[in-house]
Design a protein that fits this description.
Layout lengths: L1 H9 L1 H8 L10 H19 L5
């Protein structure tokens, strides 16, 4: 799973395609996919937060 997350971090365009349900991850359940997407969404919120600037 860690390698999958690293891959998604390096290939942000795949995350967008996952959100649009244009691609799927082989061997990853829908629940796991949704959890990863939620984590990326939270990470993006933290990056844009004024608290961290």
């Amino acid at each position: 799973m860690i390698k999958m997350i690293q891959f998604l971090q390096e290939n942000a365009n795949i995350v967008e395609l996952l959100k649009e349900k244009k691609v799927s991850l082989v061997g990853v359940t829908e629940t796991e996919t949704q959890a990863m997407l939620e984590a990326f969404k939270e990470e993006l919120k933290l990056e844009r937060s004024n608290y961290w600037q």
